[in-house]
Design goal:
The protein is mostly beta strands and 137 residues long. It has one helix at 50-53; strands spanning 11-15, 18-23, 32-37, 40-43, 55-59, 68-72, 77-80, 90-93, 100-102, 111-118, 124-135. The chain has one domain.
Amino acid sequence: MADLSITAASVVLVSGPTFQATAGEAITAGQAVYNSAATTVKKAQTDGTSAEAAATGIALNGGGTGQPIVCAGEGARVTLAGATTAAGVIYYVSNGAGGICPIGDIGSADYVSALGYATDTAGAFTIRITNTGQVLA
């Protein structure tokens, strides 16, 4: 499998907490993000450092460097429109910057960071973050 194919213009917060930050790089709605500084977020990825893999949420809007980004945080429910998901499957931060993928796409030596789980086949997603800080053996 590959990263979820998300329609950025149709990412929607259903319920739950959000946080606002400043983009530390160009970000697209639907991408997994991590806190790179006190109020700056960047795209999370598992093939860099453990800090880069430590997801904090999913971007709800896009923007360039220095622009405000609103993110869905832990416990939020979102619709990742366009994504074909499987109910009950846990999805992870991908090694592609900002990507979201199933566990089978995490490579050996990539950090393992669970982002949440799908509740249907049409992109309904609940954010339940577990940043293990460990690489896949």
